[in-house]
Each structure stands twice: as C-alpha cells, then as structure tokens.
Amino acid sequence: MSAVMMTRKVRKWEKLPGKNTFCCDGRVMMARQKGVFYLTLFLIVGTCSLFFAFECPYLAIHLSPAIPVFAILLFFFVMAMLLRTSFSDPGVLPRALPEEATFIEMEIEATNGNVPAGQRPPPRIRNVQINGQIVKLKYCYTCKIFRPPRASHCSICDNCVDRFDHHCPWVGNCVGKRNYRYFYLFTLSLSLLTIYIFTFNIVHVVMRSVNSGFMKTLQDTPGT
Amino acid sequence: MAETHSLQDMRQQAAIAAKVFIQRDYTSGTVCHFQTKFPSELENRIDKQQFEETVRTLNNLYAEAEKLGGSSYLEGCLACLTAYTIFLCMETHYEKVLKKIAKFIQEQNDKIYAPRGLLLTDPIERGLRVVEVTIFEDRSLGR
C-alpha cells in the first residue's frame, strides 16, 4: 500500500486518449498542429507593433494621446482572448470507460435484436425527447458514447466536444461550449482592432498629405 | 476528486459486482437533469426514497449552478471588462457550485452509500453524461 502512495499521481490530462498537446502541467491544452496559430500571433503582434512604432507618436502629438492608449488596451484584450481560446479546454467529453462501453453495447443489442451475419447493422441511434421534440442522439464509435445533443466528434483532435462549433486552425484548438465565449470575443475585438488601426492609418496619411503632399507622405511612412 | 480516500482502499479490496448508469433526463430541455427512476439493480441494496432524494438534490444543485440571475450577469460583465483576468483570482459561480456538488457526493458516499457497498461517481468525471453507481460484491451474504 505504501508503495502506491509514494509514486506520483497520474494526472487526467496524461491519460487523455485524444490528440491534444498539453503544457504547463496541464494548464494549457491545444491541438497538435500549431503552425497556423503561430502565424496568427505573428500577424497580430507584427501589425500592432508597426502601428505603435510608426503611427502612434504622430497621432499622440497631433490628435490625442488617448488614441494609442485605447489601441494598447484593445490589443491586450485581443491577445488575452486569443490565448484564452487557444489554451482552454473546449468542452471535451471523456471517453466511456470499459464498463460503461459494455453496458451501452448491451443496451444497443437489446434494442436492435440479433442481426444475421453478413447484413450491415442498423445505425446506433438513441431517441430522446427534449421539450416535446424527438431528437436522435448518435453513437460515437471512437469514444463509445451516445453523444449529447449538439456534441460532435472532432477528427483532428480525436475527441467528442460538447456543443462543437468547428476546429479553428487559426486558433489552434477546437471551438466548443467552454471556449465559445472567448472565441467570439476574440473575433469581435480583432475586427474592432483592425478597423481602428485602418481608420487611423488613413487619418495619419491624410493629415501628412495635407502638410507635405501624398507621394512624400508615402516615402516618409513605410510602416503605414 | 478523492485522493487517498478510504473508499479507494475498499475498492481495491472489494470486487466490483456491477455498475449502474443513471442517464440524463432531457424532457425539460438541455439543462443538466438526471433521471430519478430507481434502477432495478439497486433494489435490494438501498431504499428507493433515499436514492431518489439524492438524485433530486443533485438535480437541484445543477439547476442552481446554471441559474441565470443578477449576480451571474454582473459577474459576466465584470469579467468581460477585465478581459477575464479576474478569474485568475476568483472562481466562477458555476465552479463554486461544482465544488459544493463534489462535497455533497462525498458526504452521501460516506454516510449512506459506502455502508451499503455502493459508490457514487461525480458526474463531472464522466462529462455530465451519467451518474455512475458502482455496486460492490456483498461480502456479508457469504458469512
């Protein structure tokens, strides 16, 4: 008994059979392919740093210092949402343990009856009534569970995810019930940030052109 | 989660006779609600009223967790304004109730189910799909 107590406790994320990668002692959960996520990070950080380096000094002096301050706040919000979406659990449903899987299989056999060899077995469906409507729950062969309503299996991460929306390569993770809020805020705030930067780029170019002509402005401000 | 729980020791010694799974009850929507129907395998192990009371309390706790009121609205707004960094310091209302549920299941196991050779598993461990009831072999009959 004491030998069992001495060994390190195996964490749940170490045993998870899906194709996820984990970092920081299980605090970070992502999909396997992270290349596009790094591209997203590079694009956002790159564009914003060009904006802060080239536009903001001019705009702060000539218009208002509140402009770069608001841009910084928005940038931090976008990054926070992106990291929260990418690193959090989308709502992965744990696979059925062997006993539960056998229980479900017996239940299916009971409903379908004996299928003679050679014939394709009927699809495994469970009908449940939700608020008076009949909804069909599909059986997941990989996870060996009947998926709850609005759950779906992600083939890239090899997990069933609750309220599965899609697998987003830009974010490097699935988007499901538990990170939908952050994903939505990320796309919303990123759109705001893009529009904000674009508007102030135009304003900057116009203001400079008024002073020194359009072509010279373009020469002076390559960052824009 | 039970770390070094006496029930874990019991589990290592006692053999598992069967497992019963209480499924989700979707009749009133997609809220987390488990069926209160008494499974036949537990008939000679535990009182029907007792079991239904446990499941009913569990359902009420989950309803409380998912309740949308003024406080949850404020919590959401405040969190959004701080870019959700506030959750590094405090827990969400849902997480607080989940802890309450874990404690409740622990209590129920200690007081009612373990003496009868049963073990309830927290549904969150199974993705809120089933309440797993493990039935251990009844050694007392062998005597």
Secondary-structure topology with pairs:
The complex is a heterodimer of chains A (224) and B (143).
Chain A: H1 2-6, H2 12-15, E1 20-23, E2 28-31, H3 35-62, H4 66-87, E3 92-93, H5 98-112, E4 125-130, E5 133-140, E6 145-146, E7 152-154, E8 159-161, E9 166-168, E10 173-175, H6 180-212, H7 214-220
Antiparallel strand pairs in A: 1-2, 3-8, 4-5, 5-6, 7-8, 9-10
Helix pairs in contact in A: 3-4, 3-6, 4-6, 6-7
Chain B: H1 6-13, E1 16-23, H2 48-66, H3 70-81, H4 93-113, E2 118-121, E3 130-136
Antiparallel strand pairs in B: 1-3, 2-3
Domain Golgin subfamily A member 7/ERF4 (chain B): 20-132
Subcellular location (chain B): Golgi apparatus membrane
Pfam family, one (chain B): Erf4
Describe the structure.
The complex is a heterodimer of chains A (224) and B (143). Chain A has 224 residues and is an alpha+beta fold. Chain A is 51% helix and 17% strand. In chain A, the strands form four sheets. Chain A has a three-stranded antiparallel beta sheet, with no helix packed on it. Chain A has a three-stranded antiparallel beta sheet with strand order 4-5-6. In chain A, helix 3 (35-62) crosses helix 6 (180-212) and helix 4 (66-87) packs antiparallel against helix 6 (180-212). The radius of gyration of chain A is 26 Å and the shape is elongated. The mean pLDDT of chain A is 86. Chain B is α+β, with helices and mostly antiparallel strands and 143 residues long. Helices cover 42% and strands 13% of the residues of chain B. Chain B has a three-stranded antiparallel beta sheet. In chain B, helix 2 packs antiparallel against helix 4. At the A-B interface, helix 4, strand 3, helix 5 and strand 4 of A face strand 1 of B. Chain B: InterPro entries: Golgin_A_7/ERF4, Ras_palmitoyltransferase. Chain B: Pfam families: Erf4 (PF10256). Chain B: It comes from Coregonus suidteri. Chain B: May be involved in protein transport from Golgi to cell surface. The ZDHHC9-GOLGA7 complex is a palmitoyltransferase specific for HRAS and NRAS. Chain B: Belongs to the ERF4 family. Chain A: It is an enzyme of class 2 (transferase).
